[in-house]
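Memo to structure team: turn this sequence into structure tokens by end of day. - J.P.
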Amino acid sequence: MKKLILILALGFGLFTACKKGTLVENTTYEKLEIGSNKYAYLKLLNLSPGSPVVNFYVNGTKFSAGYSTSGLETGGFAYNGLFPSFGYANTISGSQTLSAKTLAGASTDPNLEVFSTNINPEGGKYYSIITNGLYNTSTKQIPSYKMIEDVRPATDTTKVFIRLLNLYGGGPALDMLQDVTNEKIVSAVPSGEVSDWVTIPKPGQTNKYLLKDANTQETLGTLTATLTKGRAYTIYTRGISGDSSFPFAVTFYTTFYSTIN
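Reply from structure team:
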């Protein structure tokens, strides 16, 4: 399966050499129009606590991997691993199998399929797919996943958009507040769900945010970040309630940019 990484750039370059006897790069590349209906666009996040390092496959063909100068698989995505870090990776639209396998060189259970599901992404649409649930060491499986269609908000260079994805397993619904003003930004997002896009106060400067139990108003965690104007971010929680090995934590990634993505 031909796979392209969607890079936030204005074009692709080809390296060529004209001197006799020198190596010439003559590979034909496909120019990918941003948001083309020919492909669907995926971002993958491994939020399965206790998960081994994995790489993802689409229809049996490797879809994610770390860079390697040797051509051999040297890395993958452990708990809280995100692929790609920026933008999306594209795939064909329609019904297909998404799976995850341990590294071929892993010391334990090498090349073991630990996750498999059918997905049906539509052409021209963006998706975040998050593997989650405590890794089952008996069955050696990642038990669940969540697939979210990423619909671009009306981004512009004066605003910051965020959404809150609550994947704190077994935890309460969450509020998100701005620390200094105590202004509520997002209200009562249940475990396993994601909020709508909202704008944040005081965009473009360092802010501290509080993540609170929506019922008791206990502060479970905080996030201090400078979020760039013109972007839309997914702020997500992870961990397992009552499990000290996987405590409550909050992180974020860029979902959309104001110009191209």
